Amino acid sequence: MELQQMRYALAVVDTGTFTAAAAQCLVAQPSLSQSVRNLERELGVELFHRVGRRVVVTAAGSAFAVAARVALRAVDSVRTEVDAVSGMLAGALDLVALPTLASDPVTPLVGAFRTAHPLVTVRLAHPDGTADLLQSVVRGESEVGITVAGPAEPGLRGVQLVSHRLGRQEIVAVLPPGSTRRSALSARALAALPLVTNPIGTSTRAMLDTLLADAGLRAQIAVETDQREAIIPLVVAGAGAALLPRSMAATALLHGAVVVALEPRLWRELVLVHRNATLSPAARAFADIALAG
Question: Cα–Cα distance between 250 and 4 in angstroms, integer?
């Protein structure tokens, strides 16, 4: 089994077609297809079902993809370890983080990391939710994840994740301009407001539903959107109130929104997660910077 075969097969998994995979790998499509067929012959299984011009990843293909990503990252680590010895950390860091954590703490952490290691390229992915983020780390698509603490998520084929506490983040209520200013907002008062929120399955929505459910209440959903960047404009336009991290609420405040702390105050714990395995030099350096803060 050759490394190039593994890279070609993963390109097919990621792009969905042999043609797109060949373009991504800068190789002729027949050459890539033959390489993948040779790999399947060597493994004795089909990695893909060919359906016209499309391909469907088989169960064996899914298992192969997880192992191949880990193996290729280990190979990349060998190269970067050599550079690290001379203090020239290079390569790439695959990082995944919840969108609501992009401005805080991800942006300052990536900035500090890039300042310290300018030869490393950071590839930042945004998942659909916490479960998707954890699975991205389990599957090896991302090496490090930044998310919120919560119930332990099952691994994939026995893969275990390790988490490190990064600190906590306050969640506040953001109300449309002109709303009555108050010192704090109770769960009952929040439930009485029309709310702008993310769909079920996202971390922010789970926090909202749990907060109200614990008080025996239900949310009055005015707008449900998976476009997180639209939440502040919707609140400012008067569509409803929202729960946001205080760092994001500061932006809404600049546009006239009213920001109110919850009573009791609401906090969420932030964690850095990775597979229970040796980290690449870049990931280890990033984790050191994140945990030092």
Answer: 48
The three-point CA angle 284-288-293 to 5° equals 155
pLDDT of residue 140: 86
At 223, is the pLDDT very low, low, confident or very high (cuts 50, 70, 90)? very high
- 112-118 — which CB contacts under 8 Å span 24+ positions? 112/289, 113/285, 113/286, 113/289, 116/285, 116/289, 117/89, 117/90, 117/282, 117/285
The region of weakest confidence among 127-131, 141-145, 192-196, 262-266 is 127-131
Task: Give the predicted TM-score (pTM) of the model.
Answer: 0.69
**Upper half-sphere CA count for residue 180 (Cβ side, 13 Å):** 7
Distance CA 149, CA 154 (A): 14
Q: How many Å from the N-terminal Cα to the C-terminal Cα in the chain? A: 42
- Cα–Cα distance for residue pair 105/289, rounded to 1 Å: 12
Secondary element (H or E) of residue 212: helix 203-214
Question: For the chain, percent helix, then strand, then coil, each to nearest 5?
Answer: 45, 25, 30
Domains of the chain: 3-57 (1.10.10.10), 85-167+270-292 (3.40.190.10), 168-267 (3.40.190.290)
User: Which of 143, 184, 182 is closest to 161 using CA atoms?
Assistant: 143
Token pair of 150, please?
Answer: 């919560």
Lowest-confidence region among 154-168, 198-212, 248-262: 154-168
Contact 80, 127 (CB under 8 A): no
Cα separation, 242 vs 221, whole angstroms: 10
Per-residue pLDDT band at 103 (split at 50, 70, 90): confident
Model confidence at 78: pLDDT above 60? yes
Q: Token pair of 171, please?
A: 């969640």
